[in-house]
Write a structure and sequence with these properties.
Length: 238
């Protein structure tokens, strides 16, 4: 659910992993952009073929498993729903509540929220045992992150299923506890602690943003400093 920066990449990864995937967004132009990204975009399947990560047949098969649609009904009769709509808790809760009335009772619900409490989203549904956080990183086809967030009522079976799916898709699942305060599970809590300190350094006039980014790349061999990271994540590193 959601074919933006994250949803389209997640759909691509799971289609490559062998699953039939329906990718749903609100408008045709968004879906066209998503389809193009999955096909010929910087991290799309054609590029993966050029880099020797996929065969041409595997790329074709993955594209054939992907359906892009604005039709909600077409996207709910599935085993797993992954939600990647904008990071707005009210929007997500309202959306999950609607999906709960439409999806089969056994369907697992996974949110790609960057940090909202899983319990808060699960509470909008009648399936808190089948509700889980599955936090991906951008670009989804490249990054190994699978921060699996276990809510207070998430069942062992739900955790096992999602961990298995993530591992089979080539990710490194790490199961963490839900957060019941503020925002951020583990990766973003630690990351934003660093961003806060970077902002202090800049506001004190100790260094400017470019210098902070350069120092962090050179000191820790990070591919990007904190400011470059914020810009890159928002654009999907396009
Ligand atoms: N961008 C990142 O680096 C990143 C990384 C990890 C997690 N996330 C999280 O992933 C989620 C999505 O982020 P994004 O960067 O992909 O945002 P985005 O704005 O690129 O995409 C969100 C998409 O959701 C669509 N949408 C809104 N309501 C919808 C609905 N009811 N049904 C279907 N689609 C709907 C929008 O039209 C949009 O295309 C957020 O929760 C964000 O915090 C983002």
């Amino acid at each position: 659910m959601g074919a933006g920066v994250m949803g389209s990449g997640i759909a691509q990864v799971l289609a490559i992993s062998g699953h039939e995937v329906v990718c749903r967004d609100l408008a045709d132009d968004v879906l066209a952009t998503a389809r193009e990204g999955v096909d010929t975009g910087r991290f799309g399947v054609r590029g993966a073929v050029e880099r020797g990560k996929l065969t041409a047949d595997e790329a074709e098969a993955a594209l054939a498993r992907l359906t892009f649609t604005t039709d909600l009904d077409q996207a709910v009769d599935v085993d797993l729903i992954i939600e990647a709509v904008p990071e707005n808790l009210g929007l997500k809760v309202k959306f999950w509540r609607e999906l709960d009335t439409l999806a089969p009772p056994d369907t697992i619900f996974a949110s790609n929220s960057s940090g909202f409490p899983i319990a808060a989203m699960a509470a909008g549904t009648d399936r808190p045992d089948r509700f889980i956080g599955w936090h991906w990183a951008s670009p989804a086809p490249v990054m190994k992150l699978a921060e699996i967030v276990r809510g207070p009522e998430t069942s062992d079976a739900t955790v096992d299923t999602v961990v298995r799916l993530a591992a089979a898709a080539g990710k490194n699942p790490v199961v963490v506890k839900d957060t019941d305060q503020s925002w951020g599970y583990v990766a973003n809590r630690v990351y934003f602690a660093m961003v806060r300190e970077a902002n202090r350094v800049v506001s004190e006039g100790v260094a400017d943003r470019e210098q902070v980014d350069q120092l962090m790349r050179d000191c820790f061999r990070w591919p990007s400093g904190p400011y470059g990271m914020v810009a890159g994540a928002g654009s999907g590193w396009s």
